[in-house]
Structures are given as C-alpha cells and as structure tokens.
Amino acid sequence: MRSTTLRSGKTTVDGILVPRSWKTNGEVADLALNTLDERELVIEAPGPASFGLLHHPRSRVKLTGKVIGNRVVEITGFSVLDSLDLPESPTGEGGER
C-alpha cells in the first residue's frame, strides 16, 4: 500500500474504489479501496467526505483519513485521480457501449 502518514496521525493512501454492496434500486451502498499492493480497505467512515465517494465507484482515488487495520474509519478528504469505465452494477448493466 502506498501511503503517507501525516503529522496529524492521518494517512494518505491511493487505490481503486470498488463497490461492496448495492441498494435494491441498484445504487452503490458500500465501498472498499483496493490498494496498489492488492490490499482491500473497507470504508467504514461516516460523514460528508465519505458520502462523496459513493459518486466515484471504479475510480482511482487518493484518500486522507484514519486507517486501522484493514478499515478506513475516518475520511478527511479525497481526490479522484482517474475514472475507470466499468459496469455500474453486479449484473453488468450500465457502462456498456
């Protein structure tokens, strides 16, 4: 995992956001971050910054927050580095051309 620990105790890490579960209407409900060294960090961080992530599944992002073990428990900020063109749901619907 490529990460940087800041003086504030926060960590900056980048990877690909992947959906973990979906709502009945097909919207993404939960996300995880697959890091460049193939770790999966479960995002369990309530708050405005994490809500914004739901709009960026299948994107490469850089997160800043608090990581404990394999969980991201607080997000203080994020930036989208690249967006991938993949299907939007587990059924393969959406994103097809």
Short description:
The chain is built from one helix and six strands, in the order E-E-E-E-H-E-E. The protein is mainly beta and 97 residues long.
What brief labels describe this structure?
1 helix; mainly beta; about 100 residues; OB fold (Dihydrolipoamide Acetyltransferase, E2P); disordered C terminus; five-stranded mixed beta barrel
Model description:
The structure is a single chain. This protein is mainly β. It has a single domain (3-83), classed as OB fold (Dihydrolipoamide Acetyltransferase, E2P), CATH 2.40.50.140. Helices cover 6% and strands 52% of the residues. A hairpin with a 2-residue loop joins strand 5 and strand 6 (71-83). The longest helix has 6 residues, at 48-53.
